Known about the structure:
There is one protein chain. By secondary structure, the chain is α+β, with helices and mostly antiparallel strands. 37% of the residues lie in helices and 21% in strands. The protein contains 13 helices and 21 strands. Strand 10 and strand 11 form a beta hairpin. The longest helix has 45 residues. The radius of gyration is 34 Å and the shape is elongated. It starts with a helix and ends with a strand. The mean pLDDT is 88.
Amino acid sequence: MAFDGITIANVVSEMRKELIGGRLYKIAQPENDELLLTIKTNAGQKRLFISADASLPLIYMTQSNKPSPMTAPNFCMLLRKHLQNGRITEISQPGLERIVHIQVEHLDELGDLRRKILVVEIMGKHSNIIFCGEDHTIIDSIKHVSAAVSSVREVLPGKPYFVANTQDKLDARNTDYRTFFRTVSSKPQPVFKAVYGSFTGISPILAQELCWEAGIDGELPVTALDDGAFRRLFAVFESMVEAVDREDFHPNIAYTGNRPVEFCAIPLTMYTTGTDRIVDYPSMSSLLESYYAEKNSLTRMRQKSADLRRIVLTALERNIKKYDLQLRQMEDTKKREKYRIWGELLNTYGYGAQPGAKSLEALNYYTNEIITIPLDPTLSATENAKKYFEKYGKMKRTYEALSELTKEVKSQIDHLESVSAALDIAVCEADLSQIREELSESGYIRKKSGAKKTKLTSKPFHYISSDGFHIYVGKNNLQNDELTFKAAAGTDWWFHAKGIPGSHVIVKAEGTSQLPDRTFEEAGSLAAYYSRGRDQDKVEIDYVQKKHVKKPAGAKPGFVVYYTNYSLMAGSDISSLTLIND
């Protein structure tokens, strides 16, 4: 998925049409590296979302709002001081760079008209939001970049702002055939790499699309192209540039099956065969919001859950090492019965052992076979028997102790893996609070003395099946216990992925003795999706009426037993189900 210069051009085109002349009504900073600008226009209130997150930088218009911290960060306060009620006069993109300039007119403390520029750089880990004066001097930025971090350009208050030219690429808008041919043909690379490596604004997927439209295999080396192929490629390239100049964009997402694989501001015609298909969007902003909303949320949750993941991973690795060692020790105790039998046979036949003998052949009366028993020649047969019984006794005690210890450690591993799975599906701070509470109760996080118990507000996922049945999915182990043993009735149906960490899924039977087959299948799909097996084609799901599910005394959160159940194989496609936001 490429947030390239053409995509930026599409977003800038939409912003010009919607935001020019609008006034900055609200300025918020929901996250350390995000801005949410609310703009009042003649057509109503608009919102512009900007993220300089290193892993997911974005800019698009949205109707959604986001909660902001009670105390605004310093950068947000600075913008409010200078830009609140300012009027947006110009929105531009230098060349086809992944940069947006938003020019704002405002009145200063003396009532004089001033202009400021908000620069948004969408450049992966180098992404930034930079606030500049009219003379392009940096007033401040959402991320400070010192000389110790970058030798190319400092981004600090008082420094001049400029676009660092580090890639040596040409502007696609000012390229004729001779320049195109000379530049591309000079690169000893596959054609599509030579194209996107030569011009700003073009991503690998766009370069492959240009090759496809020109009837060229983009993986071929540049040296394999003749003059006719170069002219066809340039014709397609020129047509794309002209479309960008006309602001003739066609935002679309390419799907392979049900999986989105790429998006672009021009039609991705190479995804129109077999199981591939194209879905068009009315605007690039709606496309980006639709595609990245969930991804952005997941990225943020992974950042916020990093400390919990580290705790779980550390404990998990420690317990797995302990468990492996215990299993090896258990394996060593398997020969304990051999020592017991040798001791018994020496007590029975030891009179036949010669003094100083290193072994004794005797009949094993358990198997009616002749076996050879090793002897310590410095000891008598009775003393050798005693030594073997002592070895047997030690190994037996070790086996009995390890039998309990391995069960306990395996239980801890299963519990930690279920917590790890819960972290993967957490969608809000309340979910993380509940997981943190569980880890605290289990002793993995030290409780603060005198700290009051946090009120937990996280709720299970709530779905409606195609047949209208309510289905609930626990997000973590505490919720699983609550859902199964407090919220569910005895005749409700309980689902869980077999043998792997996952959520408890409850289907409310509502007095119905038998659910429709489709509801069983959909509940099974939810159990598969909210489990560690979600990437498998099919997952085996156990299901049973809730009255048959029991919780052993002292069991860890989320752990249950059942002795009779049905099974089904389910995929993890839950697109037919409706998620209810309670």
